[in-house]
Design a protein that fits this description.
This protein is α+β, with helices and mostly antiparallel strands and 405 residues long. The chain has 2 domains: 214 residues; 152 residues, Reverse transcriptase/Diguanylate cyclase domain (Alpha-Beta Plaits, 2-Layer Sandwich), CATH 3.30.70.270. The chain has 13 helices and 7 strands. α2 runs antiparallel to α3 and α3 runs parallel beside α5. The protein starts with a helix and ends in a 5-residue tail after the last helix.
Length: 405
Amino acid sequence: MSFDTSTLYLIATMLAAMLGGMLVLFGRQENIAALKWWGAAYLLGSAAVAIWTIWGPTLGMLASLVLTSIGFFACGMVWNAARVFHGRKLLWPGLVLGPLVWIATMMTLAPRDASIRLSMGAAIVAIYAALTASELWSERRRDMQRRWPTIAIPALHGFVLLLPILLGVYLRPYDANFSNSIWVTVFSVELVLYAIGTVFVIFMLVSDRTVAAHKSAASTDPLTGLFNRRGFSEACARVIEREAIAGRPVTVMIFDIDHFKSINDRFGHPAGDEILKLFAVVISSNLRLSDLSGRIGGEEFAALLPCSLEEGVIVAERMRRTFESSDIVCEEGPVDTTVSIGVAGGPAGTELEVLLAAADTALYQAKRTGRNKVEAAEELPLSLENWRRKSAGTTSADRAKPAVA
């Protein structure tokens, strides 16, 4: 069974043009620069391949050289689109390096060296495919199980393109019929599959990023940028589990901005919001990267630190002093910026609810004895897990007792 290579190329270019237009439209609607780059690359590359396929025999050498250079430029755009998608800078030299290498090759080789020119072109595209796979490989936010299609598709494309080099240049370097060999047919079929597969990968990446953005929005306080109560609890559970495996203690703090209601009443809610944002900055600037913080209520914040209670008290006192010395002044006068802090620490594996309950008790003590101070919990309440087991055991025993007449 034989395939008409020109027909396969036209099918591939029509499909690529359709997908490119869809990517550009979607990129404009969602304001995603990488999608517009990907779409423009598809449109540019498909136009160049279509013109070369239909009018190639009638075109002069200069026109053919320009068209193929545009195709390689489109490959460079795909690579740079992957960089843009992952927040990296454009590499403008990489866009033009492939076309320049191709032009230099065409200017130095004789017209009879068709197989070498074909192999050089395949090598340029294969290198761009490898660079694209490398950009996707360096993205560490995705686990390996879900990331493998984004790497495998461009890598496979590069491998197929390298087959003409391995089998053509080294085994049959002077075969004049090499351009009509089975490898050209394989490449044209693979080009169709690659166009579809790449768009599938692109939309998979966009979908994953959208899901991640929604998850972040669901767990982040929009005013301060810290975790909300849900996000803080989920993140703390992971840290507590990690520290429990290592046998290290953890410490929890609860912060309550003093007289916050009177600040809102006197200076207005916009001033109150600025105070909340200021305190969020104070927390973030005084914590390590391994520490967690979140806004768990109106003017209440919390933090979890993988450290001992003594170390946590020192950090809490530093934050209290920093916030107190903010010296904010509004039109109505100076704003008191003080905070009461309750601190509780526990051994490895202590549940977050237990630590929060103990820290809340210490916070109440700080507020009751004058505010603007740090209080440490003297002891932890009964472990909630143990309490549940004890309660379940008591209930079962009560049910087992015989009824008294």
